Amino acid sequence: MEMAKTAERIDTVEFPTFDASKATEQLRTFAEKGVEQSKEAYAKMKTGADEAQKVLETTFDAVKSAGSEFSMKTIATLRANTDAGFNHLEALVAAKSLSEVLELQTAFVRKGFESAVEQTKDFQASAQKAAEEVSKPLKGAFEKAVKDLKVA
C-alpha cells in the first residue's frame, strides 16, 4: 500500500524543464555585466594610477626645487662665513696691539654668533617652506582619496 502512495506522489510531481534559450540569454547577460564591471574597474584603476603618477612627478619636482634652493642657500652661507673669516684674519694681521687683537676677536665672535642665529632662522624657514611645498601634492591627493572614499 505504501508503494502505491509513493508512485502516486511521483506522478504528481512536476520537474522543471530546462530551456536552453533562457539559459543562454542569462549567461550572456551575466557575461556582459562582468565585462562592463571589469571595464569600469580598469578605468578607475587607470585613472588612479595616472593621478598617482602626476602626484609623484609634482612631488619629485618640488623636492628637486627645494633641494636646489637649500643647496644654493648653503653655498651662499659657506661663502659668507669664509669671507668673514678671511676678513677677520686680515684685520688681525693688521692689528697694532694686543688690545686691538682682543677687540677684533670679541667683535668677530659676537658677529659670528649673530650670523649663526640668523642663518639658522633662515635655514629653518627654508626647510619649513620646502616641507610644505613637497607635502602639498601628497596632501591634496590624500584629501581627494578620502573624499572619493566617502562618496563611494
Description:
The protein is mainly α. It has a domain at 59-152. The protein contains 3 helices and no strands. It has helices at residues 2-12, 20-94, 98-151. The longest helix has 75 residues, at 20-94. The protein is rod-shaped and about 130 Å long. The two termini are 64 Å apart.
Q: What structural keywords apply?
A:
152 residues, mainly alpha, 3 helices, 0% strand, rod-shaped
Main sheet characteristics: none
Distance from N terminus to C terminus (CA atoms, Å) equals: 64 Å
Order of helices and strands: HHH
What structural class do you assign from the helix and strand content? mainly alpha
Which percent range describes the beta-strand content? under 5%
**Overall mean pLDDT:** 82
Low-confidence segments, given as residue ranges, are none
Rg, Cα atoms, Å: 40 Å
**Number of alpha- plus pi-helical segments:** 3
* Strand count: 0
Categorize the overall geometry. rod-shaped
How much helix, percentage-wise, in residues? over 70%
Blueprint (SSEs and pairs):
Elements: H1 2-12, H2 20-94, H3 98-151
Question: How is this structure best summarized?
Answer:
By secondary structure, the protein is an all-alpha fold. It has helices at 2-12, 20-94, 98-151.
